[in-house]
Amino acid sequence: MTDLRVTVGDRELAATWTDDAPETRAELEAALPVGGDGTRWGDELYFDLALDVPAENASEVVPAGAIAYWPDGNKLCLFWGETPASVDGEPRAAAPVTVVARLEDVSALTALEGGARVRLVRAE
């Protein structure tokens, strides 16, 4: 079941919540809709978002399609492939992030060039 609609530029994606970070998920869910101008870092986009939560089950290595919150930098991040910090091809953040959701299909992002406007809303 799709929980979130994620728009990246002109691409429409679907995402589902994960169960690993209930406090962060609740804060993000209460803040929806959210969005911003995404900055590109390898196969990651991130934008400013201030949530009042500490790191929760945070990790630098994340699955492809991860939607994660970086509490130290107040950023929401989307990962779909390698970043400059990656080792052996895994998606890797520059610092530990809290994964709150996962994109169901990242194939639409593989051809993305540069940054893009990102928006997350509840799925209807």
UniProtKB/TrEMBL annotation:
Gene3D superfamilies: 2.40.100.20. Residues 4-119 form the Cyclophilin TM1367-like domain. It comes from the Archaea. This is Cyclophilin TM1367-like domain-containing protein. It comes from Natronorubrum bangense JCM 10635.
